Amino acid sequence: MRVFPRLLLFSAGVLCCRAEEFTLLDGRVLRDAEVLRQGVDELQIRHEGGIQKVKFDLLPRGLQERFGMTPEQVEARNGELRRAAESRRAARKEEEERHRARLAAAGEHPRYLGGADVLALVRSVETLGAGEAEYLAAEWNRREAERLRLESEAARFAGEAASLRAAFDAARRKSLRERQSQNEQKARLTALREQLGEALKQLEQLEKDNELLRQENKTLWKARSAWGTNTVVLPSPVVVPPVRTFRPAAPVRPAVRPARAAPAAVKPAAVRPAKVISSQTN
């Protein structure tokens, strides 16, 4: 039971050693702070709010001296870094000049292009803007410089290409949309042409059928004129049945008989006296 208090006191001592507060010049307080990494002019600090980088000019004087971050020390380190970078650039430039001399002796020269050269190359196959051509020229020159291991020129062309890349991508997207729209219009035009071809074929077939009907009509009228009858026989294999004209029957009306007149009165026959023929003797 006596071990527990000792462990508790030991843990509290460790936390007290690590629990440090950094009060920055901008008023922020970093509690439970711990320096993870020291840079040229900044500290990477982990605290209860997370991990962040703090510039040397935000540290109070005590912390600057503690971590070697006073303005004089930072300026001295930056000067050393600048001199080292300049020395490396000078050495790289000298090496590049020697390499260029070796290339010239071997007959190797960088084949650099300009925007006008790119436009002249692709004018027959694709339409490009001036900005797009300049980007492509910079990319070509960068690769050409890298091929010949001319690092400084490769870096310069890479910077030019990076500055032109956004405009190039925007122009490419616009060109792609226009090309897609053109392809859709071409597809619609092709479909309309196919429909027009089918319609022309149907029209041609209808004209043939119409001409055939006209010829049959002429043959029919010639036969009727020649025979004077309603029966027409066309040449084989077409046989036209007799043409008969049917007229609708007239409606049957009931016969109306005249009314009979009353019989006239019969008069008695006149009686004439018998004629007396006397016989005379000669």
Radius of gyration: 61 Å
How would a textbook summarize the main sheet? Answer: 3 strands, antiparallel
User: What percent of residues are in strands?
Assistant: 5-15%
Summarize the helix and strand pattern as letters.
HEEEEEHHHHH
The termini sit apart by 217 Å
**Whole-number average pLDDT?**
78
Entry summary:
With 282 residues, the protein is mostly helical. The protein contains 6 helices and 5 strands; from the N terminus they run αβββββααααα.
Notes on the protein architecture:
- The longest helix has 77 residues.
- A 3-stranded antiparallel β-sheet has the order 3-4-5, with no helix packed on it. The protein has a two-stranded antiparallel ribbon with strand order 1-2.
- By secondary structure, the chain is mostly helical.
- Helix content is 57%, strand content 7%.
- It has 6 helices and 5 strands; from the N terminus they run H-E-E-E-E-E-H-H-H-H-H.
Features:
elongated, two-stranded antiparallel ribbon, single chain, 57% helix, 7% strand, mainly alpha, 282 residues, 6 helices
Strands, helices and their partners?
Elements: H1 3-18, E1 22-23, E2 29-30, E3 34-38, E4 42-47, E5 50-55, H2 61-67, H3 71-106, H4 115-122, H5 130-147, H6 151-227
Antiparallel strand pairs: 1-2, 3-4, 4-5
